[in-house]
Amino acid sequence: MATNLNYHQSSLVLSEELTIIEKAKRNPQFFAPLYNKYYEVIFRYIYKRVDEQESAYDITSCVFVKAMGALNKFEFRGVPFSSWLFRIAKSELYQSFRDQKARRTINIDSVTIVQMVDEICDDRSEENREKLLKSLTLLKENELQLIEMRFFEKRSFREIGEIIGLTENNAKVKTFRALAKLKKKFNKQQYE
Asked: Which candidate among 49, 64, 77, 111 keeps its CA 20 to 30 Å from the CA of 21?
């Protein structure tokens, strides 16, 4: 599995980021570099889940307003600031889904589907891609989120745990359980 450098950062980069965060805690004008660095990533995360540009802009704005308002509560835990922002984004998304009483959208590109099919079976056929998409829709929201973060966004278990409020080990266990459930649902379709 390739490492995505947007999510995995060196200790030097994390230290520099912490310096910016500490400045922003004292003076909100220093929040701009954090906003500029993470806006696009947070927007894409939200847009993939709502698949509606205006809603994605609104929710992303709420994320950064809440982040600025709660910045003094931020505690550095050895992971990128983005993990904290993703936790806020997750919360805002769920609130949006509750407010709209709507189910989230699964918006996955074809390259990701091919990689996921490779993870589950050896056959990359169109039929298996469609089975995978159907299987993904059968997962619970929290299971789907774990699969997305680990396999589509290439996040470490530590980051996943930080985002969803679990220990690293618990994030790993829950992710593998979700993957096992996905494989089971996928294989069940083979016999239908």
From this structure: 49
